Amino acid sequence: MYQVLALDLDGTVLNRDHTIHPEVKAAIREAQEACHVVIVTGRHHTAAKPYYEELGLDTPVICCNGTYIYDYKNQQVIRENSLDKDVARQFYNLAVDHGMKMVLYTTHAMMYSRTQPVDYMHELAGWARQYAEDVRPDIRQIDSFEDEIRNADYVWKFVIEGEPENIARLQGHELVQEHFSGERSWSNRVDFARKGNNKGGRLAEYLQEKGYLPEQVIAIGDNHNDISMIQLAGLGVAMKNADDTVKAAADMVCVTDNNSDGIARLIREKIKR
Q1: Can 8 be counted among the known catalytic residues?
Q2: Same structural domain for residues 184 and 204?
């Protein structure tokens, strides 16, 4: 019997409009009566919070592809493997040299440059403004990445965007090879976090602490950063909108993409109240 439901957000629980299909929302709420539901996301906790509230969850959230676990109830980080700040500064300079646009994730905020803005962050900032202040994601445009790195308690990750050949060269650099794990989160975007961080590894640690076994888990995702948790789970599920690499890692493929109610049907079939 499955006792844990581990869910990615973007491209999985969230549809193309960054909302949750009503049937998917209802099924996840129902599932909490029978199992432990945990969000495992590439997002910062500040950008996952509106959905956490909407789904009525009371579990911690695994953020930034396993970099840290955040407890909303007590508003604190309960596990982390953040970047060394000197290494983060060196990575920033390398990324500039390779022509990258960047997003920086620090303790409580997501940041992007005023002078070299990232288009999707403008969209995300617009999305965030719909929420009340106590739930609103903290998304900022900044003047100096180096100042923000120096002043941060934690540096969680960078998201870089650029030409594929430049990304490949950056990934091949000695510093990046030594200190970073890079996982593609979009066609021209790669998330760079501290080496060894991934969704599957952090989820495995979390399960052990809570007394669950991997075979008791259903994990659902759509992108390459979900593969590690899909492979960990007793039932690893790829969304229909996932690419062939993700589908090949899964035990099954959801009957619909993220814009329909396929997850709801799967949850109700596999998790019995």
Answers
A1: yes
A2: no
Q: Which residues in 70-93 are b (16+ Cβ under 10 Å) and which e?
A: bebeeeebebbbbbebebbbebbe
**Strands, sheet with 235-238, edge to edge from the N-terminal-most edge strand:** 36-39, 4-7, 217-221, 235-238, 252-253
- What are the beta bridge partners of residue 252? 237
Nearest in space to 35 (alpha carbons), one of 219, 237, 258, 190 = 219
- Over residues 111-161, the pLDDT tens digits come to 999 988 888 898 899 999 999 999 999 999 999 999 999 999 999 999 999
CA gap 104, 100 in Å, rounded: 12
Render pLDDT for 170-197 as a digit per residue (tens, 0 to 9).
Answer: 999 999 999 999 887 666 789 999 999 9
Q: Answer yes or no: do 116 and 23 share one domain.
A: no
List the catalytic residue out of 8, 10, 191, 222: 8
In degrees and rounded to multiples of 5, residue 247 shows phi and psi of -60, -35
CB 184 within 8 A of CB 72: no
Same domain, 68 and 94: no
